[in-house]
Structures are given as C-alpha cells and as structure tokens.
Design a protein that fits this description.
4-stranded antiparallel beta sheet; binds aspartic acid; 8-stranded mixed beta sheet; about 300 residues; about 35% helix; about 25% strand
Length: about 300
C-alpha cells in the first residue's frame, strides 16, 4: 500500500474559444469538479482505481454539457452512437462498447463487458442487448438529445463537415470525457466515453472504444485516456505509445508524454495520464482541453487553456 492516490480527468479537447462567457466556463469547471469529487470519494476511502474512474466518467456522462451519455453529439443520420472503454492496469482486463444507441451509461456497459463477457469489444445492437441482459438501464435514443448539440449538428450538416464537438459549437460546449487514476495500492485504471464527432458517418467508430488508441492502462507504466480527432489517435496508437515509450525506453511519464504529443499532427487534441507513482500529465496540442486533477494531498484543480 502506498497510501496516496491521484486522479485526472478530461472533458474533451479542441478549439475552445477564450471568449467563452464566464458563466459557461464556470459551468464546465463545476462539471469537472463534480467528476473529480466523485472519484476522490472512492479513492480516499480505500476504493479501487477502476471504480474511481467509472464514478468520474459516469458523473460526466450524466451531465448534458459533455459529449458523452446525455448530451452526446449527433451523427450523419441525426441520431446518437456512443463509444466507451475501460481498462484495469492491474490485470490488463478491458471492456469496450462501440456505437451503442440505447444504453444510458456506456461506461457501465464497458465495465460489465470487462467483468462479465469473454469478449472485449461489443458493438451496436449486440452491445445494447448485452447491456439489457446484465440489467443496465435502456433508454430511447432521444434521451441523449440536447438543443445545443442539435443546432451544432444542423450547422455541421449544412456545411457538410465532420467536427469535434468544441469546433462544431465553436464558442461553447464540452466534449468527450475520460479519467485515469492511481489508487492507494498503486493500481492504475483508465476509462473514456464519447458521442464521437458531430455529423460523423453513421457507423463510424473513433479511438475511444479502441484499447491502445484512446484508452490504455498497465500498472507497470501508466494509465491513459485520449481526446481529440479520433482517426489520428487510432493511426498513432497513442495510448499504447505512451505506455511503450515508458516501458521500452525507460522514460519517465513527463518525457514520454512530451514525445507522444509532439508526434501527433497539429490540433489533434490531447490526453491525460498517470504513472504508478501518481505523477500526472495532461498535454494537448489543440487550443484547449477541459481537464482536472486531484490527489491525496487535498489538491483539486481544473483548467481549460494552457
Ligand atoms: N476522440 C473522439 C472521437 O474521435 C472525439 C473527442 O475526443 O472529442 O470519437
């Protein structure tokens, strides 16, 4: 037992205007703080990293400001397809869901797949049927609707664009969510959840549910959750890349993260990561990334821009 814990979260990266009205900035910060508090509550009472990650992500899925769960963006058909994944760094167990349409909380479905399925990645109807079998709440796809995402979709559609949620709404909105944690036993876990990109092709799957691209955790090195232009993170196997650089090159998390973010194309987005000593990095190469961190010293802070 190392008797200290660390938690980092993100609420998406992208073109986040510095002219965002202060009340909106405060609402984002409040959403991030609530997610941090949900995770800290578990970690400070001796709970596991994986449970803290699920609690933090769940809090943001339930918050309509974020592009995950309620508040997810719209695809090209005007519906919502949600992606999520979860990985336990202690045993490399993982669960992931792609293009879920009716499960209220995709992170809970990723957890159920991790715990109860012999498979790792389930998609669309098959994933939602599995959720139903294990007793997870099902909703009509319209449950995920919000006016601000609908208007962003109409705009993207009229310009025939596929956009990151922040870019789509330019001056507002939060995005994909993720969390990474180290618990007091030194275990690491990572989880990510998203509605994907505004006006994405129906059936498109991003980096979020792909282990090694958008999410990775190995207690020997680090736990990682990415956000940004999913195709770029898939191409670069970004989450695994951070782990691999630490493992094979013997680099510390700061140096490895620096190399990984520099190799991503400009404006790709960013990631959050924690190592097995509780050190946190949160690099991004977009204009901003909604993020926050907390640890056992009582520190709890949120940030958007550099
Ligand atoms: N990475 C997500 C995707 O491409 C989007 C995001 O992070 O905002 O689906």
């Amino acid at each position: 037992m190392i008797n200290k814990f660390s938690l980092a979260i993100h609420g998406g990266a992208g073109v986040i205007s510095k002219d965002t009205p202060p009340e909106k900035v405060e609402a984002y910060n409040m959403g991030l703080r609530e997610a941090l508090e949900a995770g800290v509550k578990i970690l400070s009472s001796g709970g596991k990293a994986i449970d803290a990650v699920v609690a933090a992500v769940l809090s943001m899925e339930e918050n309509p400001l974020f592009n995950a769960g309620k508040g997810a963006v719209y695809n090209s058909q005007g519906t919502h397809e949600l992606d999520s994944s979860l990985m336990d760094g202690t045993n490399l167990k993982c669960g992931a869901v792609a293009a879920s349409a009716t499960t209220r909380n995709p992170i809970l479905l990723a957890k159920a797949i991790l715990e109860k399925s012999e498979h790792i990645l389930l998609s669309s109807n098959g994933a939602d049927n599995f959720a139903l079998e294990v007793g997870l709440e099902q909703v009509n796809n319209h449950f995920f609707d919000t006016e601000h995402r609908y208007n962003a979709w109409l705009k993207a559609k009229s310009n025939d664009e596929v956009l990151l949620d922040h870019t789509a709404e330019s001056k507002s909105s939060l995005g994909t969510v993720g969390a990474v944690a180290m618990d007091i036993y030194g275990n690491l876990a990572a989880g990510t959840s998203t509605g994907g990109m505004t006006n994405k092709n129906h059936g498109r799957i991003g980096d979020t549910p792909l282990i090694g691209a958008g999410t990775y955790a190995n207690t020997a090195t680090c736990a990682v959750s990415c956000t940004g232009h999913g195709e770029l993170f898939i191409r670069n196997c970004t989450a695994y890349d951070l782990h691999a650089r630490m493992l094979y090159l013997g680099l510390n998390i700061e140096t490895a993260a620096d190399m990984v973010i520099k190799e991503l194309p400009e404006e790709a987005g960013g990631f959050i990561a924690v190592d097995s000593s509780g050190n946190i990095v949160m690099p991004f190469n977009s204009l901003g990334m909604f993020r926050g961190r907390a640890d056992s010293s009582g520190m709890l802070e949120t940030a958007i821009w550099e």
